[in-house]
Every structure is written in structure tokens, then in C-alpha cells.
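Re: [ENG-882] Designed sequences occasionally contain unexpected residues at chain ends

Forwarding the minimal case from QA. C-alpha cells:
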């Protein structure tokens, strides 16, 4: 059995972002069990927000209405399928050992903190600004850390001649690309496309899904020389990239959810990498199912 709070948050993540979905269960975040908390975190990382989904439909489909409808259908399906995948992965990573407050009937107490609509608007604007600044500061720190790791790797690749040999700069994205190529093949990508799809997944994990989808769009439109994907490879990549599971999202969740419940900041930081892993596995599960259904349809 799962609790009401974690289920509500995961379902909300299908349509809204990873910082907005926790707002639906804000009164319960402080008292969540560790399993509930990581479920909420993975839910945010395994989905994309509705507004971003529309942007990716335009990016991948271009001006062709048929292609737009095709990618809209699959991106929406990926987001919906990620909800049950989130629950499965989260309970495997951190099994529930406690007793969630919202497992069963809960009497919700609504605290009235504003005297009128003007006071509510002012308080909301102030809370929103603090949340945005908190997230921005965390993002800057995490992006700087990634750059700090990438710099010596790039230098080493240039000095050793490895960069000239493989035709790509040596950084975390490139390393993840080669490491994830076998996984891309396991989830159903044709072997000829595995390195390309693995590289896209690596970019998504290290940077973000926008950069990965932008490159996927360029590959689809033939804008990258000597790089192509089969129709099956494109479809699986579309599903595998459909989520916010990247290193920067750890900062976003620490800043966003931590702003709603400061006492859980330590747990958010502790579960950050596991949440990225869980969100990535959840998107792999949806990509695998999509690949199987397409193969036998």
C-alpha cells in the first residue's frame, strides 16, 4: 500500500513541475517517511512539466503537424507511464518501513495565515521570490561543480590526444554516453544507434533534458553530419529522455522542497543521487515498454 501524500505528489508530477508538485502535499512533507520523501523526489525527476512538454513537441515535431501529433502522443504517454514506474522504483530503492501519516483517512487542517486577498497575494509573491532565489543559488552551485569536474577531464583529453581520436571533448557527458550505450541497447535501442542514444542520455543526466532533446531534434532533421537514428531509436530516445532526472535537479529539489520543509533538507541532499538514479530507471522502464509495444505492433 502507498500513502495519499506520495500518490498525490506523483500524480501531480505528470502535469506540473518538480517544484510545483510538492506544493500539493506541503502540509505533510515535514512528517513524511523517508520512503515517501524519495518517492516524491523520484516522481519529480521521472516526469516533465506540462508547459515544457509543449515546448518539446514543437522542438521535435517542427512545423509538421503530423510529427507534432506523433511526439505529443508519445511524450504524454511517457509522462503518464512514469507514474507507476516511479512507485515501483522508489519502493525498491527505499522500502517503506514506517507508518505514513496519510495512509488511510486524514483530517486536513487548513491554517488561515492571510487576512484578505491583498495580504495573500503579497505573501504568495514573497514566498515565490524566496523559493526562486533559493533554487537559483543551488543551481549555480551545482553547475559550477559539474564545470569543475569537466575542466580537468577536457584538459586530459586534449593533452592525451583522446579528444582528437574520438572526435568529442572528454567530459562527463561523453563518459556517460559510452557507459550508457549498453544500457541503451538493453532497453531496446538497435545496436547501431546505441552509442548515439547513450550519448543523449548522458547529456540529459549531466546537463538537462532540454540540451538532449535539442540534439535529438538536430539528429532527426539531419543537421549533424554522419549521425542518424532509426525510427525505433528515435522513439526510444524520446521516452528515455522524458524526465527531469539530472544533477541540476538535485539542487532544484533541495532548494524547492527544502524551502517548503527546511527540516528535510538533510534528507533531500542524502537522497539526491538516488533520486536521479530512480528517475532515470523509471524513464528507462517507460522506454522499454514503448519499444516492446512498437516492435510487436
Amino acid at each position: 500500500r502507498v500513502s495519499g501524500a506520495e500518490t498525490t505528489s506523483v500524480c501531480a508530477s505528470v502535469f506540473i513541475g518538480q517544484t510545483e508538485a510538492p506544493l500539493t502535499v506541503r502540509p505533510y512533507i515535514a512528517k513524511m517517511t523517508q520512503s515517501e520523501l524519495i518517492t516524491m523526489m523520484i516522481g519529480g525527476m521521472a516526469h516533465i512539466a506540462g508547459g515544457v512538454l509543449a515546448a518539446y513537441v514543437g522542438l521535435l515535431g517542427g512545423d509538421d503537424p503530423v510529427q507534432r501529433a506523433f511526439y505529443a502522443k508519445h511524450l504524454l504517454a511517457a509522462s503518464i507511464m512514469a507514474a507507476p514506474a516511479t512507485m515501483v522504483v522508489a519502493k525498491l530503492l527505499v522500502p517503506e518501513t514506517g507508518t505514513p501519516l496519510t495512509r488511510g483517512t486524514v483530517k486536513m487542517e487548513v491554517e488561515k495565515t492571510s487576512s484578505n486577498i491583498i495580504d495573500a497575494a503579497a505573501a504568495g509573491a514573497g514566498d515565490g521570490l524566496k523559493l526562486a532565489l533559493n533554487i537559483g543559488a543551488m543551481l549555480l552551485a551545482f553547475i559550477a561543480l559539474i564545470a569543475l569536474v569537466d575542466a580537468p577531464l577536457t584538459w586530459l583529453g586534449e593533452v592525451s590526444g583522446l579528444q582528437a581520436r574520438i572526435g568529442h571533448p572528454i567530459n562527463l557527458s561523453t563518459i556517460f554516453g559510452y557507459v550508457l550505450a549498453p544500457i541503451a541497447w538493453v532497453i531496446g535501442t538497435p545496436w547501431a544507434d546505441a552509442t548515439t542514444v547513450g550519448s543523449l542520455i548522458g547529456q540529459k543526466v549531466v546537463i538537462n533534458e532540454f540540451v538532449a532533446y535539442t540534439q535529438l531534434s538536430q539528429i532527426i532533421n539531419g543537421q549533424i553530419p554522419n549521425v542518424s537514428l532509426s525510427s525505433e531509436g528515435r522513439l526510444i530516445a524520446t521516452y528515455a529522455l522524458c524526465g527531469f532526472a539530472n544533477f541540476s535537479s538535485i539542487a532544484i529539489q533541495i532548494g524547492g522542497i527544502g524551502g517548503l520543509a527546511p527540516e528535510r533538507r538533510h534528507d533531500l541532499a542524502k537522497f539526491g543521487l538516488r533520486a536521479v538514479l530512480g528517475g532515470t530507471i523509471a524513464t528507462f522502464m517507460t522506454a522499454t515498454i514503448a519499444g516492446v509495444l512498437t516492435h510487436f505492433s
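QA comment: On inspection the terminal residues look reasonable. The first helix runs from residue 4 to 13. Proposing we downgrade this to a documentation issue.
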